[in-house]
Write a structure and sequence with these properties.
heterodimer; A: 447 residues; Rossmann fold; 2 domains; B: 311 residues; 13 helices
Chain lengths: 447, 311
């Protein structure tokens, strides 16, 4: 009796598996992903275009089923990924319009993107209004999930607070005697936030330290003569900087001949994307970070080797930088959540012992998961990425945390190498749930 | 007030847009909404251009209007759409009335540069104001209209309808103003200021008044845009934004109040489809459009319609 029922059930499952496949193909043939990144403007070179190259390389490799475990399934849940790339340039106003276009006219299933913090803040409520699964790619501001609470919005990379916290820890570990601190940061939101976090952190960790000067040249200034003089005369032990792109290169070119770094150690919180462009311009002993365990800081793993290999195939041999790792985090996070949701559907669908309705149940179970199911699986999830494990623990399970790392540069045979790497666990450098970053720093890192 | 054909056409356009709103696909409503906000600002640009003046700093009032609306929500906790537009009108009216005293004396490149300078001062101030989010700006959410709460699902339609109403009313009044005695002085000033003075009108006063009107229109456009987009940042007063208004004004032409509204829609449509179909070269598509219009239609897109009528 039992054997007979079991037999019917097994036949049912086999039948369902065979017949479900074509039914699925009719309904949904691909997962359309809108990918938004800077293709023009100052942020395109260091961040936007590497992210785009990474997205194209990753999608191609995932669609071919070439990614290592646990991501061997082709595309996302067996469906090929269709990539639509648009430019993030033009400001938040245009990005909101273009986001609506992506969702309403182009009918994408998922939006992955946004590097500018202003764009992320502007997109957040619109994603919620249009009820579209949206994964923020690379923006740093903690305000997104500290000021709001979202259902459809996720960020698979940690926010920028940990950059400042870990930089301070690394600095004090290696140079415990520093007394005079200075900074040079661009006068816009990211530069201001970066400096404020660093200043607050170091005041808590080493009370009595002197903040001698904070230089705030305007974004894209290009000329840093007076700022370098000010840093010089301030006689500082440390120069903190979140400069990036052309601004960073110009500053390094102008500061190096004036021997600014003979007496002051330079801390570049986001210096990693430029290392290959700076041999000879970056002094040995500069402290650099990559906003997470990305790039040179990524621990060796099959996933890391996979990203480096697929990326290099598209970039003409240049190694992936941290925006490329952020892109991998976003795609793999969505894929992990989707496939987890699909597996859960199948796992809970087979009615044990009931022979009737098995075929229908299985057909339903092999449908791609709905957006709601993917979101439920995404919330509070953990998944493997080329930069190690990502945990979605903040912002009610929508904001990722990871550990991070800092290191010190030295020039070896014309190549900038990073040594003396120290890793910091996610819990040490990220605020706990429900506490704003600045409050957490000021409270003395209470957990 | 006697209504002419254009006035009727404006009211008809408003009515059609209002009725069509719920039937149109939502992406088209969004595009129309943005165009109407832009169009309202460009109406003001057109008024200045009728005086022979081009402002490269109208982002100042666009941004002031948006921040007036945003701060009403952020600081005073009064997220009412009508109040937001009202606040924008008051703020831009007062600021332009003061700045206009200086600006109305200048013409040509001097006017353009001075207006640009004022807009960049606001940009600098906002970038340094960390409490308002610096370059990241902040989100704006309007929840009521004239004190009545709007259900979340009909919010988009409400924002759109409000943009239709304000753009229609602005176009209607601007049209009747341009047709009036005072309004016609604009063209006379463009042709010969000295003669206007000899005929007994004060050029200074007319230019000042037109400047204030155009600033208020930009403020209304800014407040509507803030509510529509849901986010504001200092980019709204950065020079490329002001340049874009000049771009749309030249693209549209100054022939009729319909020109700015239509031109803004054409601009939005070109930009949006260029983003979609040529993500790497969308700026070039806009640039080529501009070149073609300047070479073949020096009077802007509106000259397509006037030519036909003459022929």
């Amino acid at each position: 009796m039992i054997a007979k029922a079991l037999g019917t059930m097994l036949t049912g499952i086999a039948l369902a598996a065979v017949t479900a496949a074509p039914a699925l193909a009719q309904q949904k043939t691909s997962v359309k992903v809108g990918f938004v990144t800077f293709l023009s403007g100052p942020a395109s070179g260091p961040f936007g275009v590497p992210a785009k190259i990474a997205a194209e390389a990753i999608v191609e490799s995932l669609n071919a089923g070439k990614a290592p475990a646990p991501y061997q399934i082709k595309g996302i849940g067996g469906l090929p990924i269709e990539l639509v790339v648009i430019d993030e340039a033009g400001g938040a106003t245009k990005q909101v319009s273009e986001y609506r276009t992506l969702v309403q006219r182009q009918d994408v299933d998922i939006v992955i993107g946004y590097i500018g913090s202003g764009d992320c803040l502007a997109i957040a409520p619109v994603a919620e209004e249009l009820k579209k699964l949206t994964v923020l790619l690379d923006c740093g501001t903690p305000r997104v999930f500290e000021e709001g609470s979202y259902k459809y919005l996720f960020r698979t990379r940690p926010h920028a607070t940990m950059d400042a916290v870990a930089a301070t820890m690394y600095l004090l570990d290696n140079r415990p005697s520093v007394k005079r601190i200075a900074g040079i940061n661009q006068n816009y939101a990211y530069g201001q936030d970066s400096w404020n976090d660093f200043e607050a952190t170091i005041k808590v960790m080493k009370p009595g330290v002197d903040i001698v000067t904070s230089q705030m040249p305007k974004f894209g200034a290009g000329q840093y003569g007076s700022e370098i003089s000010a840093l010089h005369s301030a006689n500082t032990d440390v120069v903190h900087s979140s400069l990036w792109g052309g601004d960073l290169e110009a500053f390094m070119l102008q500061a190096q001949p004036r021997d600014l770094f003979k007496k002051s150690v330079l801390v570049l919180v986001a210096g990693e994307p430029y290392l290959h462009r700076l041999p000879g311009k970056i002094p040995d002993g500069t402290i650099v970070g990559a906003r997470g365990t990305n790039g040179v800081f990524a621990p060796d793993s099959p996933l890391k080797r996979w990203l480096v290999e697929t990326y290099k195939g598209k970039s003409g041999g240049i190694d992936p930088n941290y925006p490329a790792y952020s892109t991998a985090q976003a795609f793999l996070g969505v894929k992990a959540a989707w496939e987890k949701a699909a597996a859960k559907k199948v796992g809970s669908a087979v009615p044990m012992g009931a022979a009737k309705g098995v075929k229908e149940e299985m057909e339903k179970a092999y449908q791609p998961p709905t957006q709601e199911e993917v979101i439920a699986a995404f919330e509070k999830s953990s998944f493997d990425t080329p930069s190690g494990k990502v945990h979605m623990t903040l912002g009610k399970g929508h904001q990722a945390v990871t550990g991070t790392a800092y290191g010190t540069t030295r020039l070896e045979n014309g190549v900038v190498k990073v040594g003396n790497i120290k890793y910091y666990d996610a819990d040490r450098v990220n605020p706990p749930e429900g506490v704003s970053s600045l409050d957490w720093i000021r409270s003395g890192f209470k957990r | 007030m006697k209504l002419d054909r254009t006035s009727f056409a404006i009211l008809a356009m408003g009515a059609i847009l209002l009725i069509a709103g719920p039937q149109l696909p939502s992406w088209m409503v969004s595009m129309l909404n943005v165009s109407l906000c832009y169009g309202t600002v460009v109406l003001g640009m057109m008024l200045l251009m009728r005086n022979g003046i081009v402002s490269f700093g109208h982002g100042l009032y666009f941004c002031l209007g948006a921040y007036a609306a945003g701060l009403l929500d952020q600081m005073l906790k009064m997220p009412d759409m009508l109040l937001m537009v009202g606040a924008a009108v008051v703020v831009t009216g007062v600021v332009s009335a003061i700045l206009g005293l200086l600006l109305a004396k200048y013409r040509d490149i001097f006017f353009a540069m001075l207006s640009l300078a004022f807009s960049m001062i606001l940009y600098g101030l906002l970038v340094k104001t960390a409490s308002l989010g610096s370059t990241d700006g902040f989100n704006v959410a309007a929840k009521t209209v004239g004190g009545f709460a709007v259900a979340p699902e009909s919010q988009r339609l409400m924002v759109y309808s409000l943009a239709v109403v304000f753009a229609t009313v602005s176009a209607f009044f601007l049209h009747s103003y341009l047709a009036s005695h005072q309004g016609r002085l604009a063209g006379a000033i463009k042709d010969n200021e000295l003669r206007v003075e000899y005929m007994g009108a004060s050029v200074m006063r007319v230019v000042h008044r037109n400047y204030v009107i155009s600033a208020v229109l930009a403020g209304i456009g800014g407040a509507l845009m803030a509510v529509n987009i849901g986010h504001i940042d200092p980019e709204m007063t950065y020079w490329p934004q002001s340049g874009e208004f000049v771009f749309v004004a030249i693209l549209s032409g100054t022939g009729s109040v319909f020109a700015p509204l239509g031109g803004a829609l054409v601009f939005e449509a070109i930009r949006s489809f260029a983003y979609e179909y040529s993500p790497n070269t969308w700026q070039m598509v806009l640039g080529i459009t501009m070149l073609l219009v300047m070479i073949f239609l020096p009077g802007g897109l509106w000259s397509l319609f006037t030519r036909k009528r003459e022929g």
